Amino acid sequence: MKLLIVEDESKTGDYLRQGLMEAGFAVDLARTGLDGHHLAMTGSHELIVLDVMLPDIDGWHIVKALRDAGNRVPVLFLTARDCVEDRVKGLELGADDYLIKPFAFSELLARVRTLLRRGSAPVLADRLQVADLALDLLRRRATRSGKRINLTQKEFALLELLVRRQGEVLPRSLIASLVWDMNFDSDTNVIDVAIRRLRAKIDDDFEPKLIYTVRGMGYTLEAPGVG
Q1: What is the model's pLDDT at position 144?
Q2: What pLDDT is stored for residue 123 in this prediction?
């Protein structure tokens, strides 16, 4: 499989390329936003590892250009900017995952493999769909088997996160950070309660079940026969 890394920090770029090549991937490395934009738009890659802050054009510009062109290649953003607004902006533009610098290479490799294994959630314009569950991202509405499901703002955000990262086990700490913008407190059950309420709306009256608990690890949304 062929990957593209767009990273202007020389040591980081070389480190990532070497590690991913040792993991068995073919890797192109672009050291500027302009070079990354050209390779992303003209190359044939199974996944792009994309730094957000680049000296000429930023990663947001590149992912927007890809999605505007109808290119659904999975994109893993690398960023030193650990704030919710940036993560939301990236996801809304079409990024598939975020990794905050500094990070362990083992975590990056795990996320790369997860994205390659599951691919992107099927996207039709501003719509996400898994099995008979459909999310209208513009109207912030969810339906299952054509039936409207009433969700709160947080429930929709939680469901969107699960759908975008279907097949991946999401730990409570990550859900707390991305949906509630808070550090996870092991003494609170807010995540478990939210999942339980969401499952009651999404799964209780429908088959097959989509939301699963992975004991000791977190939660995942997965369609039957996937994974």
Answers
A1: 96
A2: 45
Q: Rounded to an integer, what distance in angstroms lies between the CA atom of residue 210 and that of residue 202?
A: 8
Other CB atoms within a 10 A radius of the CB of residue 193 amount to 10
Q: What is the dihedral of CA 168, 110, 92, 194, to 10 degrees?
A: 40
Residue 109 to residue 40: CA distance in whole angstroms? 20
Rounded Cα distance between 169 and 180, Å, is: 18
Whether pLDDT at 125 is above 50: no
Strands 75-79 and 47-51, sheet pairing: parallel
Judged on CB neighbours under 10 Å (0-12, 13-18, 19+), 81 is middle
Neighbours of 126 (CB within 10 A): 11
pLDDT above 60 for 71: yes
Set out the domains of the chain in order of their start, with CATH numbers. 2-118 (3.40.50.2300), 127-221 (1.10.10.10)
